Each structure stands twice: as structure tokens, then as C-alpha cells.
Amino acid sequence: MSRVLAYSVITAAAAAVMTTSARPAAAQVYPERITIAAKARAVAASGYQRRADNREEQIDRQTRTLKLGANGVLALGNIAGDIVITRASGSDTTVEIVKTARGRDVNDAREQLALVTVEVTERAGRADIRAHYPSGEEARRANRRNLSTSVNYNVAAPAGTRISVESISGSVKVTDIKGDVSINTVSGDVRIAGAGRVNAAKTISGTVEITDAQVEGALESSSVSGDVILRRVSARRIEAGSVSGNIKLDELQCERVSANSTSGGVSFTGTLARNGRYELKSFSGEVRLYLSGGNGFEVDANSFSGDVRSDFDIVTHGSETTKRGRRNVLSGTFGDGSAVLDLTTFSGSIILSKR
Asked: How far apart are CA 46 and CA 57, in angstroms?
């Protein structure tokens, strides 16, 4: 059973949040506790519970074709279910909406299916698609305390489409979309590949993974209970954060990188940009860099209860701090010192290795 709070509240008090992942396709939704604000990130939600295998299943499948053009806007809102978005070959956007309900018998499943609706609004190059579950008085009139119903979206959109997703329980996967992409989910993984502009990729309980993305501006990615993985990503500025997960940064092209984990490791693999700045910090985890290329750097590394090790011939500034023969502070210059490394961990080691 997962406990879900508003995204903004959980982000502000992440250390106090206890979440566990749930499979959205097997979700049991408590409609009287659900509210969605279409224009807000904060969503209040219910718990989800695995379905029983012996229950009857009913599926409703429909496909909508949207005339959004090559650079339209598509906003998706969901409560329980996965979202998959891929690049379309033409100029139209197609959305397959799959509702799945499970009940104690066929009639019960059909009744649940009818209670969950999906609203599609299209106007002037923009479409909004929102799943609605009965709540409050509506749920009481239907004599429904809970529903075991999920909604999946399978979307094919032109490459230039601008995508915005707000979901509660479900994973989101986006492939080869070059328009603005903004993804927020509470319980589920976020995976983006081949993107052009990723404004945000955030989850509370799940993994964030972005690969082969060319981002024109800044990229923000975060998870409360999961890893954040960026591979072959180019951006002007990158911010990556996790509370109880690892952060893995591989082959980035970026001059400003900030990565922070509370109880996980932070790793960076690749080449430093000339005049770049890299702030890698963990409270309870290792900070490790595997560096290639010939660019020099200034390093300021601090570990309270771990050691600092380097394969590079660093000219140190001032005296080194050691504890029982182990160095736990390193400040100095390698080569031309063109990049800046700010490395900190409270409970873990800091390691600079040649690749």
C-alpha cells in the first residue's frame, strides 16, 4: 500500500515520506479520497492495492486522432496507469486509451469501467486528456468506496509536440520527442530517450532515466525513492537529486552540473568541460569520478568519515587533513585547472579515477 501526498509537499519534506511502489495496472483506487487540479503539480491521492487474480476483467479500448500539427501541445493527466509516448510518422497525434477494470463478477467490472471516464478536450493546436474517477458525493451515490480500474495511454505524436504529463500511480516512457517535455509522476518510473528539450523529469517513488537527449536549456531530474540516471545527455545546466537513491551521470556534455543524494552514491563518468563547474554531494554515500580527456581542474573535496583518493597528480593548496593516515580533505589543482570540482560527502569516500 503506497501513501501518496502532494508532490510539492513531499519534495519539501522528503525525509519524512514513506512510499512503496505499486503496479498501476493492478491498482485499487479509493475515489472519495482523490482530487486532481488540472493546472497544479500537487495532487492528492489514494492508496493502491494489488488485484486478486480470480477477479473478472473488462477492457474498454478507444483511439482518438488529434489534429495538433507538427508543434502542438499535449497535456496528459492520469491517476492509475502507464503512459507510453513515441514519435509518429505523420502530422497527426493518435492516443489509444485503454481502461481496464476488475471486479467480483462481470457486472461489477463493467460498472467500475463506466464510472471511470476520460475527458479529451481539443482546441487550436492543443489537447488535454484527463482521467476522472468518482469522488465525494459521486462515489457515495454509486455506493463505491473503491475501484480496481486503471487507464493506460499509448500515444504517437509528431517529433515537435510539446508534452506535459501529470500522473499519480504509473510509469511514463517518452521516446524521440524533440519538443518540450515535462513529466511528473508520484509512484512510477520516468524514462526519456532521444529527447530535444526536457524541462523536468520527476518522480517520488521510482527511477528517472534519461538517455541520448540533446537539451537546449536546463534539465531538472529528481526522485525521492529511486535512482536518477543520465546517459549521453547534453544540456546547458543539469540538476539531479535523490533522497534515497543513487545518481549516475555518464558521458554528459554540460558546463554546470549539480547532483545531490541524501542516502545514495553519486558517480560521474566522462570528460570535464573547460570552464565547467561540477558540484557532486552526498550525505551517506560515495562520490566517485571516472575522468577521461586532458582537461585540468581545481578540486575541493571533503569527507567527514571517509577518505579522499585520487589517481591524478594534484598540486595541493596548503596542508592536507588526515585521520589515522587517511586523507579526508583534498584541495588543489590538476593541469590547467580550467574546470571546478566541488565534492562533498559526510559518510563515504571520494574517489577520482582515470578512465
From this structure: 22
